[in-house]
Write a structure and sequence with these properties.
Layout (H helix, E strand, L loop, with lengths): L1 H15 L6 H12 L8 E2 L9 E5 L6 H4 E4 L2 E4 L5 E5 L6 E8 L8 E6 L9 E5 L8 E4 L14 E4 L14 E8 L2 E6 L2 E6 L8 E6 L4 E10 L2
Antiparallel strand pairs: 1-15, 2-5, 3-4, 4-15, 5-14, 6-11, 6-15, 7-8, 7-14, 8-9, 9-10, 11-12, 12-13
Length: 228
């Protein structure tokens, strides 16, 4: 009798869709489903052929940015040094961003820069979806506060570690990021698994970019769906 009662409770919960504790995962799933009908409006940010719609910056006047950012096999290839970034020439507010990345040589550090402000410098104010090896899913605020920040007071780099162990692929293999930025809330998913949530972000719009910050890294299938 008790077993039958337990079974009935489980079935009832499943039918009603009751939140059993993973509300963050449900939130990003809901947001992703809500944009499914808008997929026709998804913008391909990188055409696989050239850097139309992108702006390059690297630290050091004697360095040609085109030696740092190149196109190989239909993907963006970043040398990783010197420090710098590649960003869109258009600003975005609320959006769902999907992209793939991989380390073609040794693993190192990089990041997806979100709602970047103006300025060719290291670094403009922005939020970052971390790409440092085995830290993908961490949230970083570059000069930007957010509620989940765990860094020391006054630090330029605000930080919130991912909520679960890394599920990144082996070096050389492709990974996928899904990033939802809506209002003051940022949600990160890596390879289909929810990783992080940041709230209370004051930046309302900005550029989307990638960091040159270590060793070669590649990006492809970069698509953005506006949510507003």
């Amino acid at each position: 009798m008790k077993q039958m009662l337990c079974l009935m409770i489980v079935v009832t919960i499943a039918m009603l869709g009751v939140d059993t504790g993973n509300s963050d995962t449900l939130a990003i799933d809901s947001e992703s489903k809500s944009t499914a009908s808008k997929d026709a409006k998804a913008i391909t940010l990188f055409n696989g052929k050239d850097f139309t719609g992108w702006h390059m910056y690297v630290k050091g006047a004697d360095v040609d940015p085109k030696d740092v950012w190149k196109i190989k096999d239909g993907a963006i290839w970043c040398k990783g040094e010197p420090f710098g970034f590649l960003r869109t020439t258009k600003k975005y507010g609320d959006f769902k961003l999907t992209l793939e990345w991989r380390w073609p040589e040794k693993t190192s550090n990089s990041g997806v820069l979100l709602r970047m402000t103006d300025g060719d410098k290291i670094w403009p104010l922005c939020m970052e979806a971390q790409l440092k090896y085995q830290s993908a899913g961490d949230v970083v605020g570059m000069g930007c506060d957010f509620n989940e920040d765990t860094s020391k007071e006054g630090s330029f780099f605000r930080h919130a570690p991912k909520k679960s162990e890394t599920n990144e692929t082996k070096p050389g293999e492709w990974n996928k990021y899904e990033i939802v930025f809506k209002g003051d809330t940022l949600l990160l998913t890596v390879n289909g698994k929810f990783k992080n949530k940041a709230t209370g972000i004051k930046l309302s719009e900005g550029y989307v970019g990638f960091q040159s910050e270590g060793s070669p890294i590649m990006f492809r299938n970069i698509k953005l769906t506006p949510l507003n």
